[in-house]
Amino acid sequence: MRLVALVISACLLAACAPKSTAQATPKHSPTPTPIAGQPDPAPDPSPQATPPHVFVIVMENRSYSQAISSGYVASLASQYAIATDYHGVSHPSLPNYLALTSGTTWGIADDGFHALPAGGLGAQLTGAGLDWRAYMEGMTNGCFHSPYPYALKHNPFAYYGSACPPQVVPFTQFASDLSGNTPQFSWITPNLCNDGHDCSSSVADAWLSHTVPAILNSNAWQDGGMLVITWDEGEDSSNSVLTVIIRPNPVNHRSARPYDHYSLLATIEDVLGVGRLGQAAQAIPMTDLIAIKTAPKLRSKTS
Q1: Which residues pair with 245 in a beta bridge?
Q2: Are 35 and 117 in contact (CB under 8 A)?
Q3: What is the span of the domain harbouring residue 173?
Q4: Which pTM was predicted?
């Protein structure tokens, strides 16, 4: 009887013991569905130790054919890389700006203020420890109270969490940052005249001819950096816009692949080594246009 009792006790202990967690772990974890405004947990490609500096300038309301006909823009298009089949994702301005910074339009189809959940590209970069700033031309009294020619609808970072991040600053700060401590990511919104919204293409072209050379002369850009100039939406039936990728020594000068604002967001996030937000997770990145030629290595002298 004593032996039987010992056997029963041993069986009860074995039954109650916790099972190995290794047996409960599946061999392949399911891939989670991307959530709008939240990063894909698997960034692609792997982050670089020091990602290159990225600059983005968003202009206004020109179709591809209109934008590329401007003199200075045409000179950039001939020298660097352009997407010839690039499109905005919606109308009017605001949903395109949201798509560029969170991977979704949030179902918005107007330019009014909408309180959105905290998140977006700025919060993502902050969480990854990357320095960034959004330079708003004409912003003189913060995100929400600055008068014309500043436009809140062209400042998407203020919508996420209904707050004005400290990284959103007046454009007057850009020149000193460019010559000193340039952030890893710089977003630039011209005012409502210089972006072409309320003024002519020649005015917008002149503004670019003054701003772009300052970026190209900076150490941040010359050290493998990337400047993107895009337009929020086009004025033709296909919503076509011009997007110019300006990098030193581009491999390709033109791409006819179909791209949109989600493609650009995916490209920026890949370059900076962070996960992709919203619909950028399924977008095709603009790898053919960001490729650059590397300088040949010099042979070491042998004795």
Answers
A1: 81, 228
A2: no
A3: 51-242+253-290
A4: 0.83
